[in-house]
Design brief:
By secondary structure, this protein is of the alpha/beta class. Helix content is 53%, strand content 16%. The protein folds into three domains: 99 residues, no CATH class; 71 residues, no CATH class; 139 residues, Trna Endonuclease, Chain: A, domain 1 (3-Layer(aba) Sandwich). Strands 1-6-5-4-3-2 form a six-stranded mixed beta sheet, with helices on both faces.
Length: 336
């Protein structure tokens, strides 16, 4: 074989065929997914239109869906369980305009989205799932940790509506900040007295989950990143690079409450990275002091005349109270 063809050219052939094959398989999967979504939407439309046409058909009432499930399963086999029939009907009701159904998400994504009654929440997770190419598992994780509610709770009415319709747009440093960050995946019991080094260790062990919580664009650089000033060593707990904002993101972990000295320390880290670590094309670094607690008034004064790239956020080891967040957002939406 080696005598007949140039090995380099042969490897190029292998690469080209593999690329074509993967692209073709991806298109085939997308086509199947698009067909499935369109089919389920059409079935849902037929069910709803049947239900709405006249008093005579309304007599079927609650018996219609179980009867459909039974008869369609006998005729067509799998795919028409009662739960699936209900989801198809719900699918059409939630998306009466077929054009709003994105083929970039699969049916399993929509099953999770349909569990959300609030249309703003559903719209956000749909758009964000498309933007960040979430798997079904990732989508469930973000819904479970109330990502939309956390992001929307600090916004006004117009910003909440924009967030729901477009997803989270990353244009400025504060667009990547969350408060609080949810670290339930670390599985640290609330009364447990852990150290900052243990907190960092658990985050590294669950880095994939932490990156998902941080959001789109983060790439891990290192832990305990050493800074040397005046023959003294200092260490940044976690260092990331944000591909969209083109800047380093420094995170300092605090087991308890964030203090003014933590703000000063992070400000020093930011100065060092901007002057010593940044290369051509890098934007000024972002610093996040991530603490279990923070005193907003103290932090406000500690941040006076400090870099606008520095943020202090809280983390929680448990899931947030969704109803409290929803109530806060409803108040914002009803505010004239």
């Amino acid at each position: 074989m080696a005598e007949l063809v140039n090995q380099s050219e042969y490897q190029n052939l292998i690469g080209s065929i593999s690329t074509i094959y993967e692209e073709g398989r991806s298109k085939a999967i997308q086509a199947v997914n698009a067909g499935l979504l369109d089919t389920y939407w059409q079935i849902g439309r037929h069910i709803v239109e049947f239900e709405q046409e006249g008093v005579e058909r309304a007599r079927y009432g609650s018996d219609l869906l179980p009867k459909l499930s039974k008869d369609l399963s006998m005729l067509n086999g799998k795919g028409f369980s009662l739960s699936n029939i209900k989801r198809m009907r719900q699918f059409y009701i939630a998306y009466p305009k077929g054009a709003t159904v994105s083929h970039l998400l699969g049916w399993s994504h929509y099953v999770e989205l349909l569990k959300l009654e609030n249309h703003l929440e559903r719209s956000f997770y749909q758009q964000q799932g498309i933007n960040e190419r979430w798997s079904v598992r990732e989508l469930k994780r973000q819904i479970n940790t109330s990502l939309f509610l956390r992001l929307a709770s600090s916004k006004n009415k117009e910003a909440i509506i924009a967030l729901a319709g477009q997803g989270q747009k990353i244009l400025h440093p504060n667009d990547i900040i969350r408060d609080p960050y949810i670290l339930d995946f670390l599985k640290i019991p609330e009364p447990y007295h852990y150290t900052e080094s243990e907190l960092e260790k658990r985050i590294i062990e669950n880095l994939q989950h932490f990156l998902l919580e941080l959001g789109k664009g983060f790439a891990f650089v290192g832990r305990q990143y050493r800074i040397t000033l005046g023959n003294r060593h200092h260490y940044v707990d976690l260092v990331f690079y944000h591909r969209i904002l083109k800047c380093f993101v420094l995170i300092d972990l605090k087991r308890e409450e964030a203090g003014y000295e933590d703000v000063g320390q992070m400000n020093m880290y930011l100065g060092y990275f901007e002057n010593e670590e940044n290369t051509e094309g890098d934007n000024p670094p972002i610093g996040i002091v991530l603490a279990k607690q923070k005193d907003d008034l103290l932090i406000q004064y500690a941040m006076h005349n400090v870099s606008s790239q520095l943020f202090v956020s809280k983390y929680q080891l448990y899931l947030p109270n969704k109803e409290e967040l929803r109530a806060l957002i409803e108040e914002q939406l009803n505010d004239n």
